[in-house]
Amino acid sequence: MIRRLAVAVTVALLGFAPVAAASGATASGAAASNDVATRDEVTGTATLSLTQYGPSVLTPTTALTVGATVSNPTALGMASLSVTLAVTTERITSSAALERFIANPEAQETRVAATAAVSSASPGATPNVLPPGGMGKVSMTVLPATLQMPAGTSGVYGIAISVKNSAGTVTTQTAAITWYDAPIRSLPLALIATASGSEERVQQVVAAASNDDATLVIDPVALTDAAQADALAAGQEVFSLPAGDPDLTSIAHSDDLTLLDFALTDARENGQPSLRNSPWLATIPVLDSPTIALAKSKGAVAGLLDVTGGVAPDSQPLADVTSDGGTLPVLLPNASLSRILASYRPGMPDAPARLVAQSALVAAEGGGATPVVVAPGSAWQLSELGASASVTDLLAAPWVEPVTVQSILDGDARTSGTARDLAGTDDDLAPDLIKGLARQLRDVSQLSLTAEDPNAIYRPGGRALLEPLAAPLRADPDARAATYQDARDRANTLLESLHVAAGSDVNLIAASGNVPVTLRNDLNVDAQVTVVMRSNSPNLVVQDQPVVTIPAQSDLTVHIPVTGVKSANVTTTVALENADGDVVAAPQALRVRVRADWGNAITAVFVAGLALLLVAGIVRTVRRGRASSRMAPVTPGEAGEAGEAGATDEAGQPRDTGAGGDDG
Description:
Elements: E1 8-10, H1 29-33, H2 39-42, E2 47-54, E3 57-58, E4 64-71, E5 78-79, E6 81-88, H3 95-103, E7 110-118, E8 129-130, E9 135-142, H4 144-147, E10 154-165, E11 168-180, E12 187-195, H5 199-208, E13 214-218, H6 226-235, E14 237-240, H7 248-254, H8 258-270, E15 281-284, H9 289-297, E16 302-305, E17 318-323, E18 326-331, H10 335-343, H11 351-365, E19 372-374, H12 389-396, E20 400-402, H13 405-410, E21 415-418, H14 431-448, H15 455-466, H16 477-495, E22 498-500, E23 506-508, E24 512-521, E25 527-535, E26 540-542, E27 547-550, E28 554-564, E29 568-577, E30 583-594, H17 596-629, H18 636-645
Parallel strand pairs: 3-11, 12-13, 12-19, 12-20, 13-14, 15-16, 16-18, 17-21, 23-30
Antiparallel strand pairs: 1-9, 2-4, 4-9, 5-8, 6-7, 6-10, 10-11, 17-18, 22-24, 24-28, 25-27, 25-29, 26-28, 29-30
Helix pairs in contact: 7-9, 7-14, 8-15, 10-11, 11-12, 14-15, 14-16, 15-16
């Protein structure tokens, strides 16, 4: 029997500086802050925010503690404000009834269990008046006896926390509490947290579900801490996802598996080693034959239905779904529990109690043996990094019996059915868009072969192209469209990283020579390419296709040897290819003016000029030689004497001139 105790109520008040008085007010300074709103002005203006609420399960030895902040956003003071805590007079026995009370506290009869006055503690403030812009904090601790909880029973009750004044109720917040003084039917429960998306999101989900009794379904590529991965694999039940958790239904309807194959390979080869061999639990957006057949054919051990898509709950946690490609077991999460965990007042202190109360109602409605699956999926709204109080309180509830996903897959609590032929096409990413992404992935693969380590280009490029296909984006077409455009733009930028710079016309005035071409590499890694020049005319013959390495973020000038056959203006194209001969840089047109005849004519002129210079040199030399062998000029007499003295006959003997006959 519960001993009746008086209610323990503590009120902590905190005042904040008031905002400026509204324009036109006659009072100023401190007097303005004491202006009190009329009855009509105050109704519906004060705001109430819960800062503390719990525990989620109230027992005879615990008390309900509620902390709240009351704010006055108006330009006039509010007088005679108080906070009341009321509890429903009867237990709430169904999920529907609890939903009605949460939406409208007047749906159930309540009685007030505690009241606390609200006023400002600011110096100089008028007593019992909350000044303009002021704020008061209220804390109440209420024992079970004051709440009039019946001993020896258990059940869910509604709580209404209201701000009131002399005119009546200003605003109200509702909550739930589970009274536990008698056994509640056991509820076997598997909680599944899906950690996919950005690295930050994965860390947030992993932290929120950091409970040994929770199951993680994780993208092994997005978890970057190897030690953390090892700890998860050792301490919790873990399943894996393909990289990026792509939308299986859209892919199945597109008939192009390029991106899914990349995602599966990426997870298997590049994920954390301790998580790579974890079985694949496939996210199933839609239960139709193509989706089930695809998951089955690609190796999923089971599927997990995404309840955020509005799927009606089933009484069994598992269904063996038959498709044209085989049968796949699909986990069917409890819709009410999954949605409350995912999106009910995220970050608010009363959210755990609401989830726990719902679990008590689900347990009461069940048979105590059939397990339920709770999976908030990608819709789980997490306000901060750290363990989720909702997860902690749910798994710690006295009637909850945590079980593993594997035990459900191996168990007998299951149903069966045949998948629909085709469903969900209106929410798909269009097949032609998926095919466009797949083409770009193939282009990225070709580009990656220019790097020493192809993964340096292929992995980030492929992951970027997976982003528009992320399963969570199926529920947000606008975000998916924006993500798709961004992914295509980034892929185009990547694919244009290698290019041939546009150049001016090149003149070739010889029969052979080199054509200079400038290449650009905007990648963060060096790229080895083959430079391929093609001529559209037989008048220019390309002699070689040089293989060069372009440094990262740099330019490189390459000289391509060519031969000119005949004078002509020739248009060429210059492209870059990888080692497999795939074009990785779009061909750039380059015009070459071939003037091979000019070279021959110039050569002939040059040779003729040399010949003329040679002849002129010889003539000049001969003339100089003749000049040096001539006799010096003499007078006539000297010439005669010289002639006589040097005369000879025909035989070469000295001729007698008769000059010496007159000796005597």
